[in-house]
Amino acid sequence: MAEERYREYLADRVLAEGQPITYRLLSRALKVHVNIAKQMLYEFHVEQTTKQPKSVHATYLLTGRERSSEHSNDDNAHNGDDTAMRSSPFMSSLPEPENTPESPVPTTSIVLVREEELEKTKSEFEDITSIHVYSLEPGPIENMNLLAVCNQEIASNYASGDPLERWRVYGSIQNPYIKRRTTKYAPVVAKPATKATVKSTAAVSAAKEGTKQAPAVAAHKESTPEESKSGRSTPQPGPAASLKRLDSKTKAKKDTSVGNLFKSFAKAKPKAKEAEKPKDEDEAMQGMSEDEGDADDEPAVKFDEQKAAAARKAREEREQKLQEMMEADVDMPDAPTGEKTSQDAPIDKETPSQPVETEETVTVQGGRRRGRRRVMKKKKVQDEDGYLVTKEEAVWESFSEDEPEPKKAKPTPKSTAAKGKKTGGKGQGSIASFFKKA
Amino acid sequence: MASKDGILLRGAPFEDPAAVSSRDASAYRPLHTFELPKGSEKHYAHQFADMYFVRLAQLKEAVKQKAHEAWDAFELAGDKAKYVERVLDVRQGELCWVIGTVYMEMAMKPNVLDDISKEHWIAAPPLRETYVSSSGTDDMMLEDESGRLRVAGNSLNSHYVTGCILAALGTEQADGSFQVIATQYADLPRQPQRWEAEDASLTVAKQSAPKREKAGKLALVSGLDMTGKEEDDVTLDLLVEYLTGEAGGADQSSASSIARLVIAGNSLSNASPILSRDDFDVRKGAKRNYGYDSSSYNATPAEKFDAFLAEILPALPVSVLPGETDPANVALPQQPLHPALFPLSRAYAEPLAISNESLEGLDLVTNPWEADVEGWRILGTAGQTLDDLLKYVNGVRPLDAMEMMLRWRCIAPTAPDTLWCYPFQDDDPLILNECPHIYFAGNREKFQAKSVKGPAGQQVLIVGVPKFSKTGQVVLVDMETLEVETVKLGYVKPGL
């Protein structure tokens, strides 16, 4: 089944969305052996370039021996000015070890190269033991490190399942001796959520073969961390903290990387938003989050204005599309359209970019609440290309308040945050002045 | 030009890939030589002078023996060289030899007292590339329990560093300095046989030695320098894909012969949450912050390293040495990185409460590190000892310096003088008692390897492991033949 799906998947991922894809990510996405994934990439590349040259760009991975002109072992290359320790007259009693020129150490080179430089690089190799397509992307890439996004995606989206069983599917080397403890506090990011989406997208795409929309869903997994975050409300007591930290972490990372990509392939953007939608739905169907009712528990996800606007537009589109979809396939049992929109609403409403409180540790003492909480703050940074990149960062800040008003604090995060800061400053200021006097 | 099955440039129909190769077993016996006592057993109040006494006491016999062999028959102008017990007993004009610890008095060498006076300085002195002063005014001394003797001789300074134990043959001059004719050092200690410890324990258990399979390879890498930025990500990805056998074609199976990966320090480029003096002043001047300051510690590099390990570990056991820039204690011997840093990958390690050794999986070890791998004795450091030693000398190749450390039988001669070190009292594990078969130092500028021989037939492979972040190189040591090869990972810069 993977054999049929790979074409659509690649077309959506590379041509429609303009995202790079590595053989590794493809093998994870379709659950095939890495070597088959490499061949799929090749097949797809050949197909597309015969149809339309330059429509898809490839990078290759070359393995082999480079010509020996610059062997890394230039150990004896500059003996001239070096005084070897042992040549000192004081060690004359030692058998002087002969200064044998050492045979060059065999070096295997594994080189990632764009198709433009492939032939030239090939000619620099003495012997090539293997070559395969490493990744496909919509156009020539200037920075190879962009490809690292794919592996980050693997880490965040395909981390589920027993890592010790991975070799069966993907064909990595198996170590039969390694054991893995299953920890109580496994800090794996949002496992069930990702799994669910993967599964459901598979199902969806199977159901609506040909409609082109479905694999886009599969492709667009970036949004899953956000999704799973908003989906999973916070009631777990212990490990929640670490979970959340990881979450926001990966998200922040993702934001920048994805942002980069979006910049270079700007037209992919509205589509991304679009693709996000059906997935929301899947989650709702799966019943991932039973207690979505109390919205104040939910760590709010913020988008910047642009995104929000795009989302709003996309929502309308999506509603339309949903309508069509509902009419089209009747066997999708429970797609709760109406409810969905209402759920989306609070997220969109909270878009203004004030710090949003995510978590706090509070001690109540003498009528004052003190503690520290994590606050999402926006930070604008200019990256090396001169673009302004907005990052969300989780920042701990301490606060102290006059009244324990647990109910009131939540629904108006903005005001509490501001107030917390101010009063915190005042309260501690008094301590400082106390010390100053002393 | 290339074999057919290596070229994966073919499309449908997709052939079923060859059977997955499984990893060679890794025979591993950690030695815990450099583990410090836990908790309150650790005492930092001791005097460092004891280390020198212990070192001299332990190595004196070996050096004396070597010197006797060399100089008992030595005659100069009818004078027979005789051994003088204490350096202060040397008589002027008498041909004799003494044994003592070298102390280098160098103008450029950092001084403890400087650290104190630094508080009053406007600017602290910059870190030195070398301690050798250009004016050539550096002095060399030989000291033992009784006192010190100023040593003079041709270019002695460029060959010895503070802390090595030496026998020196010569005469005292009119100005009181000791003119050296020749020197002797302890040379390589006894080298255990391969599988010696394993066989011994089997004999005790009254079992016959098992038939051992052909050993695989040991992969050495150092200086991953994870920054948390997205600069070297692709090279690191390639490393993961190479080690798990996913990258490449026909050569995938060759990666399965790697039985263990050793990461020799500096996995994180800057993990220290402790600010440098300058940064601290800047921060102090700025807004006052009470409590934990989240901006002072960035967890991204550590998380990335954790994810990196978690990707490799299902396929390969990994030993991690801490290095200079890793979040471990700075004083040698550095203790293993704490498993709390590795929320994902620590699932592959034995919990600390049960055992401090993980034979398979994630193995967090000390720096320096000593262990038996495939029966061979392996000694490795993350490179600080070598870096510091090289500051004492001019124009000495790192590999030769490593060889001399072995021959002096001292892994960190310059500790505690210029290298931070735990104040050992009764026993100094940094003294070499048994000669390793493989000795490596991490974080070199480039890859180097050589094989040296000792007087009693010892043979040591010395490897300088290059910084991965600079060179993209992984060193593979064949554990059957002790041959070295390297694998270079990288990418062709676009537009070149």
Automatic annotation (TrEMBL), chain A:
Nucleus listed as a keyword: yes
GO cellular component: delta DNA polymerase complex
Subcellular location(s) of the protein: Nucleus
Location, primary (coarse class): nucleus
One BP term from GO: nucleotide-excision repair, DNA gap filling
Basic and acidic residues biased stretches: 65-84, 219-230, 244-256, 271-280, 299-324
Gene3D superfamilies noted in UniProt: DNA polymerase delta, p66 (Cdc27) subunit, wHTH domain
Biased composition (Acidic residues): 281-298
UniProt biased composition (Polar residues): 352-364
Biased composition (Basic residues): 367-380
Secretion signal span: none
Keywords carried by this UniProt record: DNA replication, Nucleus
Membrane-spanning residues: none
Molecular function (Gene Ontology), one example: DNA-directed DNA polymerase activity
Keyword check for Nucleus: yes
Ranges for region Disordered: 65-106, 207-438
InterPro entries with a match to the protein in the record: POLD3, POLD3_sf
Protein name: DNA polymerase delta subunit 3
Organism listed in the record: Karstenula rhodostoma CBS 690.94
Lineage: Eukaryota, Fungi, Dikarya, Ascomycota, Pezizomycotina
UniProtKB/TrEMBL annotation, chain B:
InterPro entries in alphabetical order: DNA_pol_a/d/e_bsu, DNA_pol_D_N, DNA_pol_delta/II_ssu, PolD2_C
Record keywords, A-Z: DNA replication, Nucleus
GO cellular component terms attached to this protein's record: delta DNA polymerase complex
Domain DNA polymerase delta subunit OB-fold span(s) in chain numbering: 47-180
Keyword Nucleus: yes
GO biological process: DNA strand elongation involved in DNA replication
Subcellular location: Nucleus
Domain DNA polymerase alpha/delta/epsilon subunit B: 219-447
KW Protein biosynthesis (keyword) present: no
Superkingdom assignment: Eukaryota
Record-level Gene Ontology MF annotations: DNA binding
CDD domains per UniProt: MPP_PolD2_C
Pfam families referenced in this protein's UniProt entry, alphabetically: DNA_pol_D_N (PF18018), DNA_pol_E_B (PF04042)
The family this protein is said to belong to: Belongs to the DNA polymerase delta/II small subunit family.
Entry-linked PANTHER family: DNA POLYMERASE DELTA SUBUNIT 2
Protein name, entry field: DNA polymeras-like protein subunit delta-2
Natural source organism: Karstenula rhodostoma CBS 690.94
